[in-house]
């Protein structure tokens, strides 16, 4: 076993020695903290000089990127006090806030910038064996309280509690004694590895391995092929694939030489993408991207500028960066008159903070196409005077440049919306437009227009509004119009006209006239936004609106919960590009009614059978002394009304380390093309509400039947970090 800090790397050695860095939270909150890299080469520790024994840590694996200089709003606000060469920002994965830091010198800043970047790269480039070694080393470091490089039995008992294990002390001592080959009463490096392997031995995986291994020690090439055919339901390539798996995952060179796989290699295969429940071909970009925009679900954000609630929350460019990094393709900007002739962005008539429209558009220009090359829709809520509207138009034009779409493709009047493929690398402005695409050359400079649907929800905005020609001319394929009725739209609306609906109005239309809504959305775009009553930035269930083909179902991205889990699950497919092709029966003139799915042509239901086998290394959610979780697994189906269902396993007493369920849950799914499957793990509590531990959401159509898979759960914890644990499932059946 080894420590992963680069012994010959000067930057990492300097980080290990530590440094005083200023942690900056605002212009007025700048405090010195002592930072250092711990021995594992993966954990950064820091504390205040006044904090006594108190300290904080974070893993380098949780850091997404290091930004150099004044590349955050907070560091920009202190640019007059600290030059850019002293400043850097650690941007975390998930929802955790950025960490803004100021070094004492430019050379010290560079040590930490280079060092953290090296560590991030090292973490990303680790193979499965190295990750396992790192995992073991991490636990050794946590258990070795006196840092003497050895672990006595008292430290072992502490380790077991940390690992969520409620183990009989006599059995724990037996494992300890078996691993203590030196009979010293302490475990050293390799002895700890042996103890860890005995502790983490997977009876569930071993049982499957034994079912196919004749001698119980290895899987021959033929036996592995048999497993792939029988359990993983692979076809003609199974023999070739078996050899590839041995070459890729078997850690023993001797086993490789004989074309065999050990239990270690078998387990590494199961936790790899190769053994995934998801079809990797469907997770990659694979859909037809040449159909009209109205034929796609589009990943969409509401009030994108907000980091928190709708009344007093912070407005931030960082919120746009985070949304775009998650594949969001429709962002919202609420614009109001600001000082010095500069439009500002905030939630009007509230105490939310304000940011410059100029800065939002600059951020959009930099980050719009880093994750996805397909078009971004800029949904503009315009509350500005004529003068500042002209400023907005100028800023859009100069900052976005050629990425801003200013005219119809090929200068032709559209008969149908263009495709994401046609609009690659383009920003589309969604706003009011005076007249149509055909008439833009004949407009006067200032025209009064009717209010939009979202304005109607705000009684302060009911007066007619003036709209400048400069801004109007930038609207091409996303003209905001008031919705009258489906009949009116069918007879009078152009393909480039779209309406916004409050969640309550959209849900009522979906319930009362679902088939009409589906038909409408095959031709035109619809946007749905949360109720104004959701001042806490909570979300509605997006599935109900996807069921009727609404493309732009806007959610508050800053709020974690089942609704955003569904959104992340739906858009995890097709390369996470932010566009998902709707089922064919929602793209044509066929009459699909989500309330009566059995009436559609070609209807057939599927039976889904999921065996929940086991879990491993589930986290503590209650950090009280001696607390051990009692985990249960719930499987939830989201889709049309008839498909909404949930079932759960029993709970396992006091075992978050390696709980074993072996329970089967069965479902009937009527419209698999629209269904999402959500796996949830909770800590059972008989006297109060269960504690949430983690979840994983996947489109039903991306599931591979027959797979035995170790699902990696994304775990939401209070700090906003993402952790990882495993659940093992077998999809026994997915048949008609």
From TrEMBL:
Annotated cofactor note: Binds 3 Ca(2+) ions per subunit. Two of the Ca(2+) ions are bound to the C2 domain.
Main location: cytoplasm
Cofactor(s) essential for the protein: Ca(2+)
Bilayer disposition of the protein: Peripheral membrane protein
Sorted UniProt keywords: Calcium, Cytoplasm, Endoplasmic reticulum, Glycoprotein, Hydrolase, Lipid degradation, Lipid metabolism, Membrane, Metal-binding, Nucleus, Repeat, Transducer
PH domain ranges (all copies): 13-121
Domain EF-hand as annotated: residue spans: 131-166, 167-202
Keyword Protein transport: no
Molecular-function annotations in GO: calcium ion binding; phosphatidylinositol-4,5-bisphosphate phospholipase C activity
UniProt-annotated binding residues for Ca(2+) 4: 628, 630, 654
Domain C2: 586-715
GO biological process: intracellular signal transduction; lipid catabolic process
GO CC terms: endoplasmic reticulum; nucleus; plasma membrane
Catalyzed reaction equations: a 1,2-diacyl-sn-glycero-3-phospho-(1D-myo-inositol-4,5-bisphosphate) + H2O = 1D-myo-inositol 1,4,5-trisphosphate + a 1,2-diacyl-sn-glycerol + H(+); a 1,2-diacyl-sn-glycero-3-phospho-(1D-myo-inositol) + H2O = 1D-myo-inositol 1-phosphate + a 1,2-diacyl-sn-glycerol + H(+)
UniProt binding sites for Ca(2+) 3: 303, 332, 334, 381
InterPro entries: C2_dom, C2_domain_sf, EF-hand-dom_pair, EF_Hand_1_Ca_BS, EF_hand_dom, PH-like_dom_sf, PH_domain, PI-PLC_fam
Compositionally biased tracts (Acidic residues): 440-457
PROSITE patterns: C2, EF_HAND_1, EF_HAND_2, PH_DOMAIN, PIPLC_X_DOMAIN, PIPLC_Y_DOMAIN
SUPFAM superfamilies referenced in this protein's UniProt entry, alphabetically: C2 domain (Calcium/lipid-binding domain, CaLB), EF-hand, PH domain-like, PLC-like phosphodiesterases
Name of this chain's protein: Phosphoinositide phospholipase C
Organism annotation: Oncorhynchus kisutch
Upper lineage: Eukaryota, Metazoa, Chordata, Craniata, Vertebrata
Gene (UniProt): PLCD4
């Amino acid at each position: 076993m080894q420590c992963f800090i680069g012994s010959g790397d000067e930057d990492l050695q300097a980080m290990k020695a530590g440094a005083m860095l200023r942690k900056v939270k605002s212009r007025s909150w700048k405090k010195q903290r002592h930072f250092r890299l711990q021995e594992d080469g993966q954990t950064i520790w820091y504390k205040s000089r006044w904090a006594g024994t108190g300290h904080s840590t974070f893993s380098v694996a949780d850091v997404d990127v290091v930004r150099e200089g004044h590349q955050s709003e907070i560091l920009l606000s202190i640019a007059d006090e600290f030059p850019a060469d002293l400043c850097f920002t650690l941007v975390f994965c998930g929802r955790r806030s950025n960490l803004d830091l100021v070094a004492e010198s430019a050379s010290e800043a560079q040590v930490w910038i280079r060092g953290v970047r090296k560590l991030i790269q090292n973490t990303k480039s680790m193979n499965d064996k190295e990750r396992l070694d790192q995992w073991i080393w991490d636990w050794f470091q946590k258990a070795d309280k006196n840092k003497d490089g050895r672990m006595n039995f008292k430290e072992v008992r502490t380790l077991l509690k940390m690992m969520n294990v409620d183990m009989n002390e006599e059995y724990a001592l037996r494992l300890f004694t078996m691993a203590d080959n030196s009979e010293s009463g302490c475990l050293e490096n390799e002895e700890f590895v042996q103890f860890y392997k005995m502790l983490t031995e997977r009876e569930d995986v071993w049982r499957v391995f034994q079912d196919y291994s004749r001698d119980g020690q290895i899987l021959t090439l033929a036996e592995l092929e048999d497993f792939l055919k029988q359990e993983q339901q692979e076809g003609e390539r199974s023999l070739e694939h078996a050899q590839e798996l041995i070459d890729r995952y078997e850690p023993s060179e001797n086993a490789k030489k004989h074309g065999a796989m050990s239990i270690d290699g078998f387990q590494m295969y199961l936790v790899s993408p190769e053994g995934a429940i998801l079809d990797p071909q469907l997770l990659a970009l694979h859909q037809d991207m040449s159909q009209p925009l109205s034929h796609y679900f589009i990943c969409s954000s509401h009030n994108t500028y907000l980091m928190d609630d709708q009344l007093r929350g912070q407005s931030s460019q960082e919120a746009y960066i985070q949304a775009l990094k998650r594949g969001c393709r429709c962002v919202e900007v609420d614009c109001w008159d600001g000082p010095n002739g500069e439009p500002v962005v905030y939630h009007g008539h509230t105490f939310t903070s304000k940011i410059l429209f100029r800065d939002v558009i600059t951020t959009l220009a930099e980050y719009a196409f880093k994750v996805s090359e397909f078009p971004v829709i800029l949904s503009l809520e315009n509350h500005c005077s004529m003068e500042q509207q002209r400023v907005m138009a100028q800023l859009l034009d100069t900052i976005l440049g050629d990425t801003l779409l200013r005219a119809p493709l090929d200068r032709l009047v559209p008969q149908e919306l263009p495709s994401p493929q046609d609009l690659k690398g383009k920003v589309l402005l969604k706003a009011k437009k005076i007249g149509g695409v055909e008439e833009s050359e004949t407009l006067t400079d200032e025209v009064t227009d009717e209010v939009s649907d979202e304005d109607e929800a705000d009684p302060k905005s009911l007066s007619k509004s003036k709209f400048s020609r400069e801004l109007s001319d930038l609207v091409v394929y996303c003209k905001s119009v008031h919705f009258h009725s489906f009949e009116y739209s069918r007879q009078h609306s152009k393909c480039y006209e779209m309406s916004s609906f409050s969640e309550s109005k959209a849900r009522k239309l979906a319930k009362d006239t679902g088939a009409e809504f589906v038909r409408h959305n095959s031709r035109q775009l619809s946007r749905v936004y949360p109720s104004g009553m959701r001042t806490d930035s909570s979300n509605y269930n997006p599935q109900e609106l996807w069921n009727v083909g609404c493309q732009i179902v806007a959610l508050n991205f800053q709020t974690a919960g089942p609704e955003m889990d569904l959104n992340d699950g739906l858009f995890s497919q097709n390369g996470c590009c932010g566009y998902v092709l709707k089922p064919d029966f929602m793209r044509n003139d066929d009459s699909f009614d989500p309330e009566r799915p059995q009436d559609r042509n070609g209807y057939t239901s599927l039976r889904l059978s999921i065996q929940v086998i086991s879990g491993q290394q589930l986290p503590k959610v209650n950090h009280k002394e001696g607390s051990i979780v009692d985990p249960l697994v719930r499987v939830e189906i989201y889709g049309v009304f008839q498909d909404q269902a949930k079932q759960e396993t029993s709970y396992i007493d006091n075992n978050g380390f390696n709980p074993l369920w072996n329970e089967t849950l069965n479902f009937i799914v009527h419209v698999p093309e629209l269904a999402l499957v959500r796996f949830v793990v909770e800590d059972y509590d008989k006297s109060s509400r269960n504690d949430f531990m983690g979840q994983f959401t996947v489109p039903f159509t991306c599931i591979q039947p027959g797979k035995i898979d170790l699902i990696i759960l994304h775990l939401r914890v209070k700090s906003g970090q993402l952790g990882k644990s495993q659940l093992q499932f077998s999809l026994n059946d997915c048949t008609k």
